[in-house]
Structures are given as C-alpha cells and as structure tokens.
C-alpha cells in the first residue's frame, strides 16, 4: 500500500509523457498501420518504443540526479549543442503546435457536428481555453487534470478494444490483396510510424522540464528509482495504447479495401464512423470522446512543454536577459506560442502539410544526434558512476542510435532523391 501511495504521489512526468505521445502517432498512425498493413505492423511499433526508450529515460535520470534540465546538460557539453537543440525547438514552435491544434479543431468540428464554425475560429477557441488552463493552473493543474483525462481515455479505449475483439475480425472483401510494406509508399509510411512512435526524440527535453517542475512541487525529492519507476509506468502505458489502436485498426478496417484519407482530421473522423459501424451507433459518443480526449490532452501537454523548453533555451543562451520576470515569462510564452501558431493556421492552412513535412524532416534527421547528446549528458562528469545508466541500457542506446540513423538516412534519400 505504501508503494502505491509513493507512486501516486510521484505521478507526473511519465503521465504527461503518455498524454503528449498518444496524439497523432497513436490515434492516426497506429490505427492506420493496423488498418492498412495488418498485424505485421506490431513489430515496428514495439521496436520503436523499445529502441527509443533510453533517450527519454536519460532525460528523467539526468534531471533527478543533477537537479538540472537536460537543456543545461547540452550547454555543459558546449554551446553549439544547445544552439542545435534551439534550432530544432524553433522549427517545432512554428509547426508542431499548429498541426496538433488543426487536427484537434477538426475533430471537434467533425465528431460533435459543429460545422457552422470554421476551423481557424475553432482552433482559436482551443488556443484561448488551453492557454488559460496552463497560465492559471500551471504544472500542478496540468498534472491533476491529465490524471482524469488519461484515465477516461484509457478506460474508453480498453472498452472499445474489448468490444471490437468481441465483435470479431471484419470479413475481408473477396478481392483483397495484402498491401506491400517494402515499396515506396509502404517505406515512407513505415518511416513516419517509427519516427513519431512514441514521439520525436527531442521531446526528451520536454520530459526533463516536467521532471524539474515535479521536483519543485515536492517537499521530499524522490529517489532515482522512484522517478524512473513512475516514468516507466507512463512509458509502458504509451506503448500499450499504441498496440490497442493497432488492434482496433486491424479488427475493424484491415481487409475491407476502404479508402483511407491521408489527411489526419478526415482520417480520424473516418475511423470513428467506421468503428461505430462495426460496433454499433450507440458507441459513437464513447469513441468520439476517446478520440477527442487523445488530441486535446496532446495539445495541452505539447503547448506546456514547448513553452517551458523555449524559455529554458532562451535563458541558457542569454542568461542576462531581464525582459520578463520569472512569474510572467511562462504566461508570456504560452500566449506568444498560441498567437504565432494561430497565425500559422490562418495564413498557411493550405500549406500546413509542407510545414509539418519540414518539421518531420528536421526531427528525423536530428533524432540520432539528439539521442547521442542525451547519452553524453548521462555519462558525463555531472553524474556519479552509481547513477549512470548500466551497460545494458547504454548498449540499447547505441542500437537505438544506429536504428534511428538508418531510418534518417533512408528518409533523406527517399525525400531528396
């Protein structure tokens, strides 16, 4: 019982990671993987979750042991590494949030039948609502509210999965042909799935910032073992949800020959209606709620994380900057990111795909580099030997870097040539 109390008290960074990761990579990519390619896609999903694990774990480990953010760890390695991470963050600032809010606004319109309001205005309403929640509630509210949101999402998804399995595999059409994974279309999808599963590697800096905030809110600093246990729980939950979305996609769509949209909003709406058709119209609200909760929680956590990381990067690069007080700087950054991303949605809505493609390209290319930077921080002089990762975890990190480098090189070759 005491172990459970300690776990519940320490819940935070791992929970936020799960909430942030189960956005489009799960709702759209995992479901689409099962729907188009079947059970074979469980292999890359599990591989991506296992081989990326060390890089996110290092963020929690470094912060718990040193009481510093991973961003400060990059600075200690050399200013050029922080500038590199700053470049990746800058591109995320103008693309990732805009893309997430577009998908969430589209889902809100399509799932709950409010087509009288346009996408840009709906996104603006979401920006205002989520910004207010983050500014007023801060980290503590984010943590508490996401315990509820993730619980609702997890329960809804478990029920949906059970109903789908109980209903049985949908009957394939008579002329169904198994799609090929190893052609140009299949490889590009596989790269996207691996690249965003469970999320981009640079999000390790986000986990580190949440770990910093968690430490500030606690009277007693949790041990490294306690912090890693909490994060591991969130990480396992993230991987499990990815598998559940894959199962749902396989059971309801694989073999039907259904034309699946490449647009995330249309696809998510399409999936909800197809689930409803398979299970029954009574399940629509349950499925729609799960889909919207997935994207809403992702928007909220990503908005919070990018705000914190952006501030930390600026403060580390320009430590003498006194333009904003500590109390006001977070609120300013949240509002600034909301405005700038709403302008991106309003001005470049038709070209959002190009902007996201740019962010994807940079994310994929930099993934093995950021992974290496994370490994260097937790094996450097900042951390005592007893707190450094063991040989198995370091070996897994090296295998992960080779894995990510291979996909990055192949992705560059596919895109550029």
UniProtKB/TrEMBL annotation:
Domain of life from the UniProt record: Bacteria
Membrane topology, as annotated, equals: Multi-pass membrane protein
Coarse class of the primary localization is membrane
Q: Where in the cell is it found?
A: Membrane
Write the protein's name: NRAMP family divalent metal transporter
What keywords are assigned to this protein? Answer: Membrane, Transmembrane, Transmembrane helix
Q: Enumerate the transmembrane spans.
A: 40-60, 81-109, 115-136, 148-165, 185-212, 233-254, 274-293, 330-349, 355-375, 395-416
């Amino acid at each position: 019982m005491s172990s459970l109390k300690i776990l519940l008290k320490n819940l935070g960074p791992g929970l936020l990671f799960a909430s942030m990761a189960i956005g489009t990579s799960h709702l759209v990519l995992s479901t689409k993987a099962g729907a188009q390619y079947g059970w074979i896609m469980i292999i890359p999903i599990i591989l991506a979750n296992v081989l990326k694990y060390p890089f996110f774990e290092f963020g929690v480990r470094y912060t718990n042991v040193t009481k510093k953010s991973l961003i400060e760890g990059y600075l200690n390695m050399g200013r050029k590494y922080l500038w590199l991470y700053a470049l990746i963050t800058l591109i995320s600032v103008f693309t990732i949030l805009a893309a997430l809010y577009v998908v969430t606004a589209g889902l809100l319109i399509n799932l709950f039948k409010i087509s009288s309001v346009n996408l840009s205005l709906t996104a603006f309403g979401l920006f205002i609502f989520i910004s207010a929640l983050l500014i007023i509630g801060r980290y503590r509210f984010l943590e508490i509210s996401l315990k509820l949101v993730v619980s609702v999402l997890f329960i809804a998804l478990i029920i949906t999965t059970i109903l789908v399995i109980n209903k049985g595999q949908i009957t394939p059409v008579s002329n169904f042909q198994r799609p090929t994974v190893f052609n140009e279309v299949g490889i590009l999808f596989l790269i996207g799935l691996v690249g965003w599963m469970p999320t981009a590697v640079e999000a390790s800096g986000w986990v580190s910032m949440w770990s910093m905030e968690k430490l500030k809110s606690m009277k007693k600093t949790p041990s490294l073992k306690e912090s890693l246990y909490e994060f591991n729980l969130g990480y396992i939950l993230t991987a499990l949800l990815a598998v559940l979305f894959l199962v749902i996609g396989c059971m309801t769509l694989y073999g039907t020959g259904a034309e699946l949209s490449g647009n995330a909003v249309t696809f998510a709406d399409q999936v909800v209606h197809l689930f409803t058709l398979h299970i029954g119209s009574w399940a629509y609200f349950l499925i729609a709620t799960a889909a919207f909760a997935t994207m809403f929680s992702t928007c909220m956590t990503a908005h919070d994380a990018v705000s914190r990381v952006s501030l930390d990067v600026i403060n580390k690069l320009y430590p003498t900057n006194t333009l904003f007080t500590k109390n006001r700087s977070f609120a300013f950054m949240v509002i600034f990111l909301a405005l700038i991303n709403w302008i991106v949605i309003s001005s470049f809505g038709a070209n959002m795909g190009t902007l996201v493609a740019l962010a994807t390209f940079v994310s994929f290319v930099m993934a093995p580099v950021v992974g290496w930077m994370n490994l260097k921080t937790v094996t450097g002089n900042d951390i005592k030997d007893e707190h450094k990762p063991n040989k198995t975890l370091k070996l897994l990190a090296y295998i992960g870097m080779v894995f990510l480098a291979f996909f990055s090189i192949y992705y560059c070759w596919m895109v550029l040539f």
